[in-house]
Amino acid sequence: MEPQYQKLLLLEPGLESEEEEEPSALLVPHPRRPQETSGNQVGGLPGAWARLVAALLLLAVGISLALRQLHTWGASTGSLSSAAPPPTGHSHHPGVYPHGAVISPAATCSRLGRELLVAGGNVVDAGVGAALCLAVVHPHATGLGAMFWGLFHNSSSGTSTALTSGPAQTLRPGLGLPAALPTLHLLHAHFGRLPWPQLLEGPTSLAREGFLVDAPLARALAAQGTKGLCPLLCHADGAPLGSGARAANPRLAAVLRGAALAPTPDPPGDALLGLVASELGLEVPSAGPMPTLEPALQLPMAQGRVFTTPSPSAGPELLALLEAARGSRAPSPAPCPQLLQAAGPPVSSVLAAVDSGGSVLLLTSSLNSSFGSRRLSPGTGVLLSNLEAGPAASGWACPLILRGSTDDTEADVLGLVASGAPAVARAMTSTLLSHLAAPQTQHQHQAQQGPTESPRTCGQGTLLQVAVRAEHAHVSSVPRGCCPFQGF
Fold first, then answer.
1. What are the C-alpha distances in Å from 40 to residues 34, 45, 54, 115, 361?
2. What torsion do the CA atoms of 244, 254, 130, 195 make, to the nearest 10 degrees?
3. What backbone torsions phi and psi does residue 176 show, to the nearest 5 degrees?
4. pLDDT tens, residue by residue, 142-161
5. Which of 93, 293, 303, 331 could form a disulfide with 448 if both were Cys (CB 3.0 to 4.6 A apart)?
6. Interhelix angle for 107-118 vs 123-137, to 10°?
7. Is 72 exposed, middle or buried (0-12, 13-18, 19+ CB in 10 A)?
8. What integer pLDDT is reported at residue 62 of this predicted model?
9. Which residue in 87, 85, 178 sits closest to 372, CA to CA?
10. Contact status, residue 435 vs residue 469, Cβ threshold 8 Å
């Protein structure tokens, strides 16, 4: 899949190119000013004609100036969604963003996240909005039935916070408890800036009015079939929807709308949990999803400080591997470990939101396998996961953030998040050590290379890498040059 990159061009003082109006000469005589022409006598017919002609000319000039102003205004606002460099000639290589970026597996959701940034939101608003969008357009990998893990680095405070859905819970064997809404709401309530309902507007519209099936969803449908997924993702004859077909999920739109309108003190996932349990003929669990926010695990290193998520994720294993490598004199591992190329289940979805100040949000979620349990709740339009209770359910998740030392102004923050690699901790360790061993000029050269996707190594098992250097966001992937993510 050819990645689609677009720079986030926020209008800033000093970057706008406004054409200065030239002083306009007096093109016609003033209609009320006495003239020296002998034919223009007060009260005479020639004077009346002169005043009429002058008024018409002034009107024509006014209309011309108004049209010119409208044209200039349209050109300046249109540049917000354009990939062309601003008039100053300032341009960036693919994967480099001057103000911030939202990177996800779907262009629609990356674009929605960018719109939230432009509307005055922060990286948490953008990331949560994009995650809710993915719950609509990528039901094979994530959804309201998924478990979420996240890592948020706040550049203002210098702190990193870990987000978890809590221990995996089941409604019955093979059907995981839907935990996405309360988990994302908790993150937004503590760190978001925009109103919660605003984040749900875009995903609700996509579910209600329909969205276009993209290549990843079409491939998953072709590989897995539509059993349990009709009529949501199939034609009338049961054939799976192909790329470019339109799908809608009005029941899911109603759930998202209800979550937007729910009173703030009420957990937004309670209504969904009650509906799903009622459909299955089960009692609502006495204790629903218990998402948590807690300080991230951290490990000091010579080049800065590493942050990751706590148990039951693979975060503790990651830190143990890094600490062991720190005391070893063995050469650094290859930047593209084979385990990434041979990655298999669980299927997951990842995204990142980063701004030029160094704030980073990394989110990863999973239904555990493609389309989860394949049990579509008819009343809610939600696909339930097949996650089982126990630590193994999220042992693959461990987003990582490296905060550079205060003396290093060229590499402030590095973030890594994996897309479903079973041995993700070893992949993260290998990638981070290779990054730290390489000269800074090499990182810059790699970031300037355009993405070139190789189908044999891209997709599940790819690491998404974001970095902030000199107030620019750099987006790349491991294996290098293989980026099945959509960036805006």
1. 8, 8, 13, 60, 74
2. 150
3. -75, 155
4. 999 999 999 999 998 989 99
5. 93
6. 150
7. middle
8. 65
9. 178
10. no
In the prediction, which pLDDT does 474 show?
A: 86
Between CA 356 and CA 449 the distance in angstroms is 20
pLDDT digits (tens, 9 = 90+) for 74-111: 333 322 232 333 444 444 677 788 888 999 999 999 99
The residues that bridge with 153 in the sheet, in sequence order, are: 160, 360
Task: Provide the CA 257 distance to its chain's centre, in angstroms.
Answer: 21
Task: Check if the beta carbon of residue 136 is closer than 8 Å to that of residue 232.
Answer: no
Could you tell me how many residues make up the chain?
488
Residues 6+ apart with CB under 8 A from 311: 391
Between CA 255 and CA 481 the distance in angstroms is 39
Contact between residue 103 and residue 351 where contact means Cβ atoms under 8 Å apart: yes
Say which amino acid occupies 337. P
Q: List all residues 6 or more positions away from 413 whose beta carbon is below 8 Å from its beta carbon.
A: 153, 155, 354, 358, 360, 401, 402, 403, 404, 467, 468
279 pLDDT more than 90: no
Question: Of 250, 249, 232, 254, whose CA–CA distance to 241 is shortest?
Answer: 232
Using 50, 70 and 90 to split pLDDT, how confident is the model at 329? low
Tokens of 389: 């209770």
State how far Cα 38 lies from the chain centre.
73
pLDDT band for position 166 (50/70/90)?
confident
Question: What count of Cα atoms within 13 Å lies in the side-chain half-sphere of residue 80?
Answer: 14
Do the beta carbons of residue 433 and residue 333 sit within 8 Å? yes
Peptide bond into 479 cis (omega under 30): yes
Inform me whether the pLDDT recorded for 370 exceeds 80.
yes
Between CA 376 and CA 468 the distance in angstroms is 40
Q: Is the dihedral of CA 429, 435, 438, 442 positive or negative?
A: positive
Q: Are 357 and 390 in contact (CB under 8 A)?
A: no
Contact 160, 403 (CB under 8 A): yes
Amino acid letter for position 396: W
Q: In what order do the strands lie in the sheet with 304-308?
A: 96-97, 472-478, 463-469, 413-418, 400-404, 304-308, 297-301
